[in-house]
UniProtKB/TrEMBL annotation:
Name this protein carries in UniProt: UBC core domain-containing protein
Amino acid composition bias (Low complexity), ranges on this chain: 278-289
SMART domains noted in UniProt: UBCc
CDD domains assigned: UBCc_UBE2J (cd23799)
Domain UBC core: 5-154
Lineage summary: Eukaryota, Sar, Stramenopiles, Ochrophyta, Bacillariophyta
Gene3D superfamilies recorded: Ubiquitin Conjugating Enzyme
Pfam families per record: UQ_con
Region entry Disordered, spans: 189-292
Ranges of biased composition (kind: Polar residues): 236-246
Biased composition (Basic and acidic residues): 191-217
Length: 346
């Protein structure tokens, strides 16, 4: 039974890494899952990751090599989050950049080269200080994985090459062009993402500003008037409630105060008769004649639209013409009757 193209390509990657090993990295699929690989890489010399050993997973899709994999780091490095699918230009986050000719070896070389690059806010990226990264690099050599090395240290998975084998290998990797391309695309994508986020934030601020201006425009003017009235009341030394009460209450009539003057000695006191209480006559309001009532009493006073009605005017003209024609006809008939009478007499 023929194998699928994905499995044939995975077996080709396994053979290629076995025939041409590197002391800088190691990778192999799990025994029970050919689409999940575990990798171990060394930190590049002259960087914050020098001396570090980093372990992780490569999750190949069923469509491999036509679709890119996901990368998950298991060793803390200060550059990538652990147990998170990181966003790089050769991962499934950027499938449009992937090429089917690329394989596991290119992925391992790219991971080493991407460790010292800036995080730039990518998914799963960290931007820790150099001191923290160097501290994590020292601790990473003791990392163990229970799945691929039976609980032993992952540093033991890296092959040890002789001096002759090291001398055969060129200092520059065979994937230098591809790595330069991937790093440039990574920088372009992150710059684009930052620009998009900035534009989104600016649009959100503009929308908020427009919404606030609309609220200010649509705010009822009654509140402004109320504030103006309150200000006037405050300037005159009265509270708004007192001002409203004074405006609503009608003026009270002034009643002359009676002064009890002392009665001279020997003069009997005269008792004043009680005055009846002063009652206010209710104010009568003048009846307001509504225009509708006046129009009902005299319909010719306001309703003059019939004078300008074209249909009515046309009917009047036609009636006048018909009356004139009947008048002429009657006059002609009278003249004929007169002539007939004259003819009979003669």
């Amino acid at each position: 039974m023929s194998k699928s193209p994905s499995l044939r390509r995975i077996q080709a990657d396994v053979r290629e890494l076995a025939l041409d090993p590197s002391e800088r990295y190691y990778a192999a699929p799990l025994e029970n899952d050919m689409f999940e690989w575990h990798f171990t890489i060394r930190g590049a010399e002259g960087t914050d990751f020098e001396g570090g050993v980093y372990h992780g997973r490569i999750l190949l899709p069923p469509e491999y090599p036509f679709k890119p994999p996901h990368i998950v780091f298991l060793t803390p490095s200060g550059r990538f989050e652990t147990h998170t699918k990181v966003c790089l230009s050769f991962t499934a986050y950027h499938a449009e950049l992937w090429q089917p000719a690329w394989g596991i070896r290119l992925i391992l070389e790219a991971l080493i080269s991407f460790l010292p690059t800036p995080a730039d806010g990518a998914i799963g990226a960290l931007d820790w200080t150099a001191a923290e990264r160097k501290k994590l690099a020292k601790r990473s050599v003791n990392f163990c994985c229970s799945q691929c090395c039976a609980g032993g240290k992952v540093i033991n998975l890296l092959p040890k090459l002789s001096d002759e084998e090291k001398a055969k290998k060129s200092a520059s990797t065979q994937f230098s062009k591809e790595l330069d391309f991937l790093q440039k695309m990574q920088a372009i994508n992150e710059t684009k993402n930052k620009t998009d986020e900035k534009e989104t934030d600016e649009k959100g601020e503009e929308k908020e500003g427009d919404a606030k201006s609309e609220e200010i425009k649509n705010a009822p003017t009654a509140s402004v008037d109320a504030k103006g009235d309150t200000g006037g009341a405050a300037s005159s030394g009265e509270t708004p409630s007192e001002t409203t009460k004074a405006a609503s209450d009608p003026p009270q009539p002034q009643v002359a105060e009676t002064v009890n003057e002392p009665t001279p000695a020997g003069v009997p006191a005269v008792e004043e008769e009680p005055r009846p209480p002063v009652t206010e006559a209710p104010a009568t309001e003048a009846p307001v004649v509504q225009p509708a009532t006046a129009a009902a009493n005299n319909p010719w006073e306001y309703d003059i639209s019939w004078l300008t009605d074209p249909m009515l005017n046309t009917a009047i003209v036609l009636l006048a013409i018909i009356c004139w024609l009947f008048t002429r006809r009657a006059h002609a008939l009278l003249e004929e009757l007169g002539e007939l009478k004259k003819a009979q007499v003669s």
